Amino acid sequence: MTSRWKDVAMAAGLASGDGTVRPTIFAEMSALAAATGSANLGQGFPDEDGPAWIREAAVDAIRAGENQYPPGRGIQRLREAIAGHQSRHYGIDLDPDTEVLVTAGATEALTAAILALAGPGDEVVTLEPFYDSHAAAIAMAGATHVTVPLVPSGGGFAVDRAVLSAAVTPHTKLILVNSPHNPTGTVLTREELSDIAATAVAADAIVITDEVYEHLVFDGASHIPIATLPGMRERTLTISSAGKTFSLTGWKVGWVAGPAHLIEAVLAVKQFLTYSGGAPFQPAIASALTDGDADIAELRETLDARRELLLASLTRAGFTSVRPQGTYFVCADATPFLTDAVPDGAAFARWLPAHAGVACVPLSAFCRAGSETADALSNWVRFTFVKDDATLATAIERLETRLSRG
Ligand SMILES: *Cc1c(COP(=O)(O)O)cnc(C)c1O
C-alpha cells in the first residue's frame, strides 16, 4: 500500500527518514530568522500590504453583504476584469464566461490543472530549479516529473535548447512554464518561449504557464505570455494571481485562462478542491485589475530600487550574483564563503542567520535531490528584496560588515 502523501513529500524534498513530513525550507529559515533576530530575506512575501483603496474595496464588499459562496467560476465582474486585463496588456481575447476560471490563488489553479490533465504514465516537464508546488502537484497526480535545467550562463540563467528537445517526448502530457521565473528571476526570451512552443506542438503537449510575476519585470524586459505565440492559444492554460501584483498574497485570488474545453477540465477538479472562495476579495481584485495600473507601476519602481540596493550590496559583500530581470529575488553564488564546516549553499543558509543576522534560502531547495541541476547550483542561495526599507538596510549593513570569505 502506498500513500500519495509520501510521494508528495518526497517530490517536495520533505520526506524525512522516520516517515514524517519535514517543514519546508522556507518555514525552517523563517523560524531560524525569528530565533536569531535576523533580517529575513528568505521567504518571499511582502512586508508592506497592497494599496489601501483595494483593501477598502474588500471591506466595503464585506459590509455590503458579499459573504456567501461566490459562483464556482468566480463572480462575473472579476472574470470580465481578468479578460479585460489579458486583452489590454497582451492582446489575448477571452470569453469571460467560458475561458476564465477564478481560483484560490495561483497554487490552486496549478494543482487543479495538473490533476485534471496528467496522471500515471504521463510526463510533465518543468524547468529546474522549480517552484515547490509544481513538483508536489505532479506527484499528487501520480505523473512523472521531467526537468530541463536553467543554469548560469553568460551572466544569466538560460534554457538549453538541446536538453529541452530531448526532454519533451511523445510521453509528455504537459509542459509547465514559469516566467518571470522563481527562484532565478529569469524572464524567458521570445526565442526560449518559441523553442518551448515548438516542442509542445511537436509532442502535442498542453502548456501550463505560471505568470504570477508578470508585472514585476525590470531593465526594460518584457513579459511575453506563451499563449500569444503562434499556435499556442489553443493548447495553453495561463495562470496568474493578484498576490504578487498587488502585494496581497494572503487574499489568495488567482485565475486560469485558456480554451473552454481545458478550463472545463480544470473546473471539474477545482470545484471539489475548494468549490469557490474569497467572496469579498473578488470584487476588490476586479477593481484592482481594472483601475490599478498606476499602483502596479509604483510597486515595480519601488522593487526595482530595492533590487539595485541588494545587488550592489551582495557584490560589495563578495558574492557573484545574477541580475534578475523579474520577480522578488536575487540568486547569488556563496562559493567565496564556503569552508569545510559550511560546505554548500544549504549549509550556508543554515549558518548565515546566527553568524551574520540575515536569512536566505538555498537553490537546492528548488531542485530534485541529487539532480545535475542541484549539483550545478549547490553553492547558490536566493535572497528576496520584497522587504521594507528598514529590513533591507539592516540586511545590507550586516552582509557587508559581518561576512568574511572562507
Ligand atoms: C507565489 C507563487 C505562486 C503562488 O501564488 P498564490 O496566488 O499565492 O497561490 C505560484 N507560483 C510562483 C512561481 C510563485 O512564486
Automatic annotation (TrEMBL):
Q: Which CDD domains match?
A: AAT_like
The answer to whether keyword Protein biosynthesis applies is no
Q: Which SUPFAM superfamilies match?
A: PLP-dependent transferases (SSF53383)
Listed cofactors: pyridoxal 5'-phosphate
The Aminotransferase class I/classII large domain, residue ranges: 40-399
Please verify whether the record's keywords include Oxidoreductase: no
Query: What Pfam families does UniProt report for this protein, alphabetically?
Result: Aminotran_1_2
Q: Name one GO molecular function term.
A: pyridoxal phosphate binding
Output the Gene Ontology cellular-component terms.
cytoplasm
Instruction: List keywords of the entry alphabetically.
Output: Aminotransferase, Pyridoxal phosphate, Transferase
The highest taxon in the source lineage is Bacteria
In terms of InterPro entries, this protein maps to: Aminotransferase_I/II_large, Kynurenine-oxoglutarate_AT, PyrdxlP-dep_Trfase, PyrdxlP-dep_Trfase_major, PyrdxlP-dep_Trfase_small
Say which family it is in: Belongs to the class-I pyridoxal-phosphate-dependent aminotransferase family.
Q: Fetch the PANTHER family from UniProt.
A: FI04487P
Could you tell me what this protein is called?
Answer: Aminotransferase
What organism does the record attribute this protein to?
Leucobacter komagatae
